[in-house]
Design a protein that fits this description.
Layout: E1 10-12, E2 18-20, E3 50-54, H1 66-74, E4 77-80, H2 83-93, E5 100-103, H3 109-123, E6 126-130, H4 143-152, E7 156-159, H5 164-172, E8 179-184, H6 189-198, E9 205-210, H7 215-226, E10 231-236, E11 244-249, H8 250-259, E12 266-270, H9 275-283, H10 288-302, H11 306-316, H12 327-338
Parallel strand pairs: 3-6, 3-7, 4-5, 4-6, 8-9
Antiparallel strand pairs: 1-2, 9-12, 10-11, 10-12
Helix pairs in contact: 3-4, 6-7, 7-8, 10-11, 10-12
Length: 339
């Protein structure tokens, strides 16, 4: 079909005389050019004089955003937790890192922060901060430079992306409207138990990280402190080919860990305390004097030595931070009451 805008069409009037129709100009917005560049997707911007925290894939390289690729290619400085992993990621993404790459990890981030921010402030540099996987600052380096940038009045922004915490939470089937993230469970048994005791009355869904070589001990402690029946999910190898979600009660997941030890770093999502559990936890915190009175009563009623009664009471009533009261202090309070 030929448009009037392309030719001068000749038509006839009602009287039969020929009339020349002038060309019709069609606005370009109504007839897009086949060769015009598309404006549907705009290239990611690399903000000058800014610190950018960018999330990297946690297992599936296909999760890398176009914005991350552009930042990796064009940022003036890339501060990477592990420079070798950075270059490996860039190679898999087909990106050439043109900026200066510096190592930025847990052991040097406080020392490096101000030097990087000087480049932002005086040279207008874009400083890209990336960790090995996920979002910087979330159990990864980055907090020091964010804090110093805020103190110095320099802009900081994020290029969001994959998050093991949010992925696990979404896949767990547990409430997501309110949750708390506790990072890695402590390595030592005593510290781990104290941490869990402090969370006995937590009503929100709780999220932890854990490693394969500690998961069996961690599940034992979860069982002992939080009980057998709390719902939970163990999420491993998220976004990878062998992604696995184990759902059930703490007792059921604990048994599955014993029967089939999981591999790879994992995320544990634990259901919050019920109303009854929260109520019991809130009333279990006693003062040293209250523990002394309770120990005296128990020793009398159960025929126990006072030291054994104190040991039981202290174990049953952790302090608000999850630690246990000092038995010597409780014993001194017992002597004060008797005297």
């Amino acid at each position: 079909m030929t448009l009037a805008s392309e030719t001068n069409d000749v038509v006839r009037s009602a009287a039969g005389s020929p009339v020349t129709v002038p060309p019709v100009t069609v606005p370009s917005a109504t007839v897009p050019s086949a060769t015009a560049p598309s404006t549907a997707v705009r290239p990611a911007m690399v903000p000058p004089a800014t610190v950018v925290l960018a999330a990297t894939p946690i297992g599936n390289v296909g999760d890398a955003s176009d914005r991350l690729k552009t930042l990796l290619a064009d940022a003036d400085i890339v501060a990477a937790e592990d420079t070798r992993r950075l270059y490996d990621l860039a190679n898999r993404l087909g990106v050439h890192v043109s900026g200066r790459v510096v190592a930025y990890h847990d052991h040097n981030e406080r020392d490096k922060a101000d030097g990087l921010l000087d480049q932002v402030e005086t040279q207008g540099a874009t400083v890209l901060v990336v960790s090995d996987a996920g979002m910087p600052t979330i159990n990864d380096p980055g907090l020091a430079i964010v804090r110093r940038a805020i103190e110095r009045g320099l802009p900081v922004t994020c290029a969001p992306g994959p998050s093991a915490v949010l992925d696990a939470l979404a896949l767990s089937g547990l409430p997501t409207d309110r949750f708390c993230y506790e990072g890695f469970l402590p390595r030592k048994h005593s510290e781990r138990v104290q941490c869990l005791r402090a969370l006995l009355g937590e009503r929100r869904t709780i999220v932890f990280y854990e490693t394969p070589h500690r998961i069996a001990e961690a599940m034992d402690d979860l069982f002992d402190v939080l009980g057998a029946d709390r719902p939970m999910a163990l999420c491993r190898e998220l976004t990878k080919d062998y992604e696995q979600i184990r759902r059930g009660t703490i007792a059921e997941v604990r048994q599955s860990v014993a029967d089939d030890p999981p591999r790879g770093e994992m995320v544990l999502v634990i259901g919050g305390a019920s109303d009854e559990e929260a109520e019991a936890a809130s009333t279990s915190t006693l003062s040293i004097e209250d523990m002394a009175v309770l120990a005296i009563d128990r020793a009398r009623e159960d025929g126990l030595r006072i030291k054994d009664a104190i040991a039981q009471v202290v174990q049953e009533h952790p302090l608000a931070d999850g630690s246990l009261a000092n038995r010597k202090q409780v014993y001194a309070a017992v002597l004060a009451i008797k005297n």
